[in-house]
Amino acid sequence: MSKQTVIEIIDHDGGMDGRFSRPPGALGRAVAVGHAMCPRDNRWSSLAGALAALSAITKNRYVVAFNGMHVRLNLYVADVEPTASGKETGRTLARLLTSAADTYYTDDIVSKPALHEVLSHKPQMLACIDEFGRYLAEARADSSSHRGQMMTFMMTLYGLAGSFLSERTYAKKTDTKPLVDKPFLSALLSTTPERLEGALGSTDVVDGTMNRLTMILAGNTTPPFKPLGRKSIPNDKLPADLDEMCKRIAKGPPLPEEKQGDDLGLDALSDPEGGTVTMDEALERQHDQFMREMDARKDKGGSIGPMWGRAAEQVLRVAGVMTVADTALAGDLIREIPMRPEIYQWAQAFVVNGIDTLEQGMAADIVDTPLERMRRSIMKAIEKREGKPPKHNPGVGWVRYVDVSGAVRSGKSEARTSKAVEDEIEMLIEDGVLERCHWPKKTAGGSDIRPMKIVSWLRKRVNPYPFD
């Protein structure tokens, strides 16, 4: 069976467009090497492994600059492929790339305290989780389980690469975990379509987990073995050009001229904002338009909506990783690397195709879950009240939090706890669908003697922005 035949099967079997398994530049070079190692005619696992690993080995030393913001480059890559399709090749490639760049790799962390402990010693790392769909289903069935707590913890870490992880204090002093400055966690999450669909079928796809994932969906057909004569290469060593690329990325950007020659130690070399991926004016305008288009898709609602709200951020992360890798493949890194339009355009099309594929293949099974119905009830409660706001309100569109939560809890169709409603409202705020403010409620008679009561207010977000 030819390569083209394999691609056609993937294209028409619930998977992503086959052309995305052949990315340009350094990422494409790494995928080609992984494909040569794999006994099956499969590039998707190598794409997932390479993208996750290249993200990890940037070690928080580069950011993408856009409109005054800095977008970090850590990625959580979901590799969704059939059983026995060769997903191990992606993990093998990821191990080789991270090893060459002296970046910590692990596939053996099963709890929140364990992950916190590792990050306190290795604040830049790649975590691999096999059978992620089963992991997700178990975590959602019991959020207080070890896996449930770890899943929530990972989603929190996604946005902390420019901040810090707080100290965790426990009754037993030896269990206390220290503060971690700018933790930079990347992840390779492997599962099968059936496992993922089963996990999503019982809850809402767009909670704080799914909209942080960069999706790679290969379809439902196991790729064939390579024909006799197309030998696989050994999987224990990278080619020299990729090995050198990883070492250059590990070295990081050069120090500023005013700091060169100073005895600054290793900390200076790992300055998280040591380098910047820049966008020219035309590219910034293109991305600004893309953001607005994604917001429009998000505002249509549905089970995938908030994933579209974060698509613009995902594009910059993917394009930033590819830009750093391309530069390092060609030579030493520089402090300011211009993003090439063709890299941005590929990343944009890739991210959109991944979310589109998930929406088309799985939305029918998850569109009417209890959480999705609750989400719709929250939005309807806001829309019903926003045209008739109480007196002394913060402004146009604001409604009282307590009025919305009360209306949703008292829905006639199904009982809902206060905590469940509050959790879903918090998720809508985090996803950029809603915003909240605190505003004093005028007391009876307008007395200045009695203290003003501070009330929480909600409204549909006016200027949604997808970045942490």
From TrEMBL:
* Protein origin, superkingdom: Bacteria
Q: Which InterPro entries match?
A: DUF3987
Any idea what this protein is called? DUF3987 domain-containing protein
Q: Which Pfam families match?
A: DUF3987
Q: From what organism does this protein derive?
A: Aliiruegeria lutimaris
